[in-house]
Design a protein that fits this description.
The complex is a heterodimer. By secondary structure, chain A is of the alpha/beta class. Chain A has three domains: 162 residues, Aconitase, domain 3 (2-Layer Sandwich), CATH 3.30.499.10; 112 residues, Aconitase, Domain 2, CATH 3.40.1060.10; 174 residues, Aconitase, domain 3. In chain A, 31% of the residues lie in helices and 16% in strands. Chain A has a five-stranded parallel β-sheet with strand order 5-4-3-6-7, sandwiched between helices. In chain A, strand 13 and strand 14 form a beta hairpin. Chain B contains eight helices and seven strands. Chain B is an alpha/beta fold. Chain B has a seven-stranded mixed β-sheet with strand order 4-3-2-1-5-6-7. Chain B is globular, with a radius of gyration of 18 Å. The chains are: A alpha/beta, B alpha/beta. Chains A and B meet through helix 2, helix 4, helix 6 and helix 11 of A and helix 4, helix 6, helix 7 and helix 8 of B. Bound molecules: iron/sulfur cluster (SF4). Iron/sulfur cluster binds next to loops of chain A.
Chain lengths: 469, 191
């Protein structure tokens, strides 16, 4: 028998009943993250069927998607700034959590933030755990060696009711990262490079494990950026084996095991990495030393090129490609760099952590955002906001002419009132450049915080390497 | 959930690849706490212009789309977010199935839980369907086959448990609840 992978080990530890030809496996869930957009219909189902939440203690609730990013600490403030539908959704979330006995990190709470940012930050995300959320970027938590994936609202209902899910085991996919990153090239460029290589459906039906020599040099926050966008490559989950960086990151965090429990946990975590002879159903290798800063030019994350490259030409019959270039108002054969930028967004569960803000600050420090470019910087959580403030980052941003906001999803999906106006071009550190994702008719270029900040300064899509000494 | 046995309908074709959930139902319509009414904004940004007027050359605004229950699209339909609002919107509009050569994982799982049928077919059948919009076809759940107007049939993959749930109109929660003793035992043993 061949060795087992990280994925296999976590899966096996959580099987309540194994799968057979008639029924999927019943999989136990260690941590369920809940937010206001994909949960209301699930709570309704609980209510109408008279079912309670099985494990409120394994459920972590926050509000992030439709919350405003201007300061509000009470519902009264909220009513003034939020649109009525967003207001209703937030009020409903408070009611649901109260009725079902869930602790909510709501407005004004010092631990509130984007769901995928706060769970690792609190130490609730741990190696070996199964983690789900009604949100496709749940894959982010795989950075700490957890098996984490997005689910739909019916499944949110199932997990609230039973703490379990019915699942067929996916195939496994090893992505080997080799080499050393060049300066100005970041984790975001790695994941965009991977998606460019495997395609946006390359991971469909698979669980990804990122492996290889380059992993050691990646911080946990960088690994989160890479796991975050596994779903943009079609995979529901992406993960890194836990290592010393993981343990160091978790040690002392409020929800992490303490004292004796820490020692026990550590022993278990060290057993998790894939065995040397583990087999994967699929495998690719990426030499990260060859990567340049990457940016998207089309309307899905697989339409991506090096920032100093030319926009490729469509094959004659590719309707989608032509439609995408029309939508983006870009021309095949032309360089992407130099396109005039209207909005820069630095934030989202992909790139809103302290290291991302520091990277943006390193470019913005002592410089001014180009005239007419709206630059919005949105920290991922209340804690990151405090940490950034303690370092004086907001002063750098404001002096450069950027806006510094309250934590939330904001312009990543534009449902809270922050959006890119119709026809405008945004360079965004988020994860999706679909038509209309950042507002109806908005044109999105996905890139790293360095590239976004460089583009804000120049007012055109720019290579960040010219700003790095 | 209503049992689904057979779907017999004309098709509507959107020949694009990679139709993502933000196209199926844009995020600004997710600020709802119910399911009903999402059909009105299905493919909203393709169906309506910025003044809310119907875009004449979008297929759902044509008469022949009226009453059609089967959508045929390019590959990798439903990629993007986990929003179950996507199959809810398709169902609320009146669609009952989508046919493609590839369907994204989370969308597929969400669809099956709502009695919306995701059908993956071979390239050849797909090409025929794309070239023949409005064809009257049948999707048979029991035999998991697609029958073309000339009687040719082709099978499509359908996981046995999902098939059972569709045919009987069963929500999977019942199955999980029936196994609560095993869940109790698991919790006891791991604590
Ligand atoms: S930041 Fe964007 S991708 Fe992340 S959870 Fe929020 S909406 Fe989803």
């Amino acid at each position: 028998m061949s060795g087992r992978s990280l994925f296999d080990k976590i899966w096996e530890q959580h099987v309540v009943l194994p799968e057979n030809s008639n029924t999927p496996a019943i999989l136990y869930i260690d941590l369920h993250l809940v937010h206001e957009v994909t949960s209301p219909q699930a709570f309704d189902l609980l209510r109408s069927n008279g079912i309670s939440v099985r494990r409120p203690d394994l459920t972590l609730a926050t509000m992030d998607h439709s919350t405003p990013t201007v300061p509000v600490s009470s519902l009264k403030d909220l009513k003034v700034v939020a649109e009525p539908e967003a207001f209703n959704q937030i009020v409903q979330m408070e009611k649901n959590c109260e009725e079902f006995g869930l602790e909510l990190r709501g407005l004004g709470n010092s631990e509130r933030g984007i769901v995928h940012v706060i769970a690792p930050e609190l130490g609730a995300t741990q190696p070996g755990k199964t983690i789900v959320c009604g949100d496709s970027h749940t894959s982010t938590h795989g950075a700490l060696g957890a098996l984490a994936f997005g689910i739909g609202t019916t499944e949110v209902y199932h997990v609230l009711a039973t703490q379990c899910l019915l699942q067929r085991k996916p195939k496994t996919f090893a992505i080997n990262l080799e080499g050393h990153l060049q300066s100005g090239v970041t984790a975001k460029d790695i994941i965009l490079g991977i998606i460019g290589k495997i395609g946006i459906d390359g991971g469909t039906g698979h669980a990804i494990e990122y492996r290889g020599d380059a992993v050691k040099q990646l911080s946990i926050e960088e690994r989160m950026t890479i796991c975050n966008m596994a779903i943009e490559g079609g995979a529901r989950t992406g993960m890194f084996a836990p290592d010393d960086s993981t343990y160091e990151y978790l040690y002392g965090r409020p929800h992490a095991p303490q004292d004796e429990a820490w020692d026990i946990a550590l022993k278990e975590w060290k057993m998790l990495p894939s065995d040397d002879d583990a087999q994967f159903d699929k495998e690719v290798t990426l030499d990260v030393s060859k990567l340049r800063p990457m940016a998207t030019f089309g309307t899905n994350p697989g339409m991506v090129i090096p920032i100093d490259g030319a926009i490729p030409s469509p094959s004659s019959s590719d309707q989608g490609f032509t439609k995408a270039l029309d939508y983006m108002q870009l021309e095949a054969g032309q360089p992407l760099a130099g396109s005039p930028v209207d909005v820069v967004f630095i934030g989202s569960c992909t790139n809103s952590r302290l290291s991302d803000l520091r990277a943006a600050a390193s470019v913005l420090n002592g410089r001014k955002v180009a005239e007419g470019v709206r630059t919005l910087i949105v920290p991922g959580s209340a804690q990151i906001k405090r940490e950034a403030e303690a370092e004086g980052l907001p002063e750098i941003f404001k002096a450069a002419g950027a806006e510094w906001r309250e934590p939330g999803c904001s312009m990543c999906l534009a449902m809270n009132g922050d959006f890119v106006p119709e026809g405008k071009l945004a360079v965004s550190t988020s994860n999706r450049n679909f038509e209309g994702r950042q507002g109806k008719g908005a044109r999105t270029i996905l890139a790293s915080p360095l590239t976004a900040a460089a583009s804000a300064i120049n007012g055109v899509v720019s290579d960040p390497r010219t700003f790095i000494s | 959930m209503e049992p689904v046995n057979k779907i017999n309908s004309r098709t509507v074709v959107i020949p694009l690849d990679d139709v993502d959930t933000d196209q199926i139902i844009p995020a600004r319509y997710l600020r709802t706490t119910v399911r009903a009414g999402l059909g009105e904004n299905l493919f909203a940004d393709w169906r309506y212009d910025k003044n809310g007027t119907k875009v004449a050359d979008f297929v759902l605004n044509n008469d022949e789309a009226n009453g059609a229950e089967i959508l045929v699209t390019g590959r990798n339909f439903g990629c993007g977010s986990s929003r179950e609002h996507a199959p809810w919107a398709l169902l609320d509009y009146g669609f009952r199935a989508v046919i493609s050569t590839e369907i994204a994982d989370i969308f597929r799982s969400n669809s099956l839980k709502n009695g919306f049928l995701p059908v993956v077919v071979d390239e050849q059948t797909h090409e025929w369907l794309i070239k023949n919009p409005g064809a009257e076809i049948t999707l048979d759940i029991e035999s998991s086959t697609l029958v073309l107007p000339d009687g040719r049939s082709t099978s499509f993959p359908l996981e046995s448990f999902s098939q059972y749930c569709l045919l009987n109109g069963i929500d999977e929660l019942g199955f999980l609840m029936d196994n609560s003793a095993s869940i109790d035992a698991y919790e006891e043993q791991t604590n």
